[in-house]
Specification:
Length: 330
């Protein structure tokens, strides 16, 4: 089984552990799990914790990129950072895990949209303009009092379109999604958002957004965090989300973006009220995350039992995400 995952905070884990003096973290801690899963391509989010904002955002982002590069060197070929389709194919052929950098929140750019060119040169191929909090470019799903996309945000979207960087709607406010769809003509996705019609959570994608993602040949990655999945068995509920995404956006849209964080060491806490949308159910907050080793295959098995073909399941596990990633890898 080959699996592609569109969103992980694994890079945050690598950075935290390296700051504590650990080395070769990916190969020692994460590679055995990746091998059990068959996880061959992982999008690695550069996420800046609130405690480092605003002054430390750029410095922290660059340190995280450096952590990824050093982990690649220390892994002796087990991890390969890729920025082109040819490099992706080479990594897959060699048996390596291919890592692709993304920005989860554009805070490292400060108020200069043009800095995205630097991050593109460093290998960033996907950008979510915001995390839950608002910034100079857009409104997040928790802080959404502005226009959705600011004037600086409009310039950032134009830069991204010119560079071929994909736009990630996860965490963007509803008004921001609407404005971004009007402004941006490039590759789009929701890297780690479920279907709001299955579970009405502010972080999940509306029917209208999913339909537009499908129209633009994008994808939506299933998020395995219970507060976005809903009550009940995680595999069954994620299968419900996958079916809704396929119905609304097309069979080429469902993918995985599991957003696992249970492996993270203790770090700076996010301010109360920023980490989750206000409509999150209290009894789902803090529940343990499902096992990384079994989640992907578990959802696939449920969908096969519901009548999905092998090709449809393979699309969910890898094919749909690979199609999109190849469009934004140059």
């Amino acid at each position: 089984m080959t699996v592609v995952d569109l969103h992980s905070d694994l890079l945050l884990d690598l950075d935290h552990r390296r700051l504590r003096g650990e080395r070769d973290v990916f190969r020692r801690i994460h590679l055995p799990v990746f091998q059990k899963i068959g996880l061959r391509v992982q999008v690695l989010a550069i996420f800046i914790e609130t405690v480092y904002l605003p002054e430390g955002a750029l410095r922290t982002a660059l340190r995280m990129v450096d952590a990824a590069l050093r982990e690649e060197e220390e892994s002796e070929g087990a991890l390969r950072l890729v920025s082109t389709a040819a490099e992706l194919d080479e990594a897959l052929a060699s048996g390596a895990v291919a890592g692709i950098l993304s920005l989860e929140g554009a805070e490292p750019l400060g108020r200069d949209p043009g800095l995205i060119k630097v991050f593109e040169r460093l290998g960033v191929r996907l950008v979510g303009p915001v995390w839950n909090r608002a910034n100079a470019f857009a409104d997040g799903v928790v802080e959404a009092a502005g226009p959705g996309i600011s004037t600086l945000g409009e310039r950032l979207l134009a830069e991204m379109a010119e560079l071929g960087i994909a736009l990630d709607f996860s965490h963007l406010s509803p008004r921001g999604c609407e404005r971004a769809l009007d402004l941006f003509g490039g590759t789009v996705l929701a890297s780690h958002s479920n279907s709001a019609s299955v579970f009405a959570n502010g972080r999940n994608a509306s029917d209208e957004l999913l339909q537009e993602i499908g129209r633009r040949d994008g994808v939506c990655g299933l998020n395995a965090v219970q507060v976005f999945v809903g009550e009940g068995d995680v595999n069954e509920r994620l299968a419900d989300h996958a079916e809704a995404i396929a119905r609304l956006a097309g069979q080429a849209a469902p993918a995985f973006g599991c957003d696992f964080t249970d492996f993270l060491p203790a770090g700076p806490a996010e301010p109360i009220g920023i980490g989750l949308p206000p409509d999150s159910l209290p009894d789902l907050i803090g529940l343990p995350q499902p096992e990384r080793e079994t989640l992907y295959a578990g959802v696939a098995d449920v969908l096969r039992a519901r009548g999905w073909s092998d090709d449809q399941v393979d699309g969910l596990l890898a094919g749909n995400a690979l199609r999109l990633l190849r469009r934004c890898l140059r």
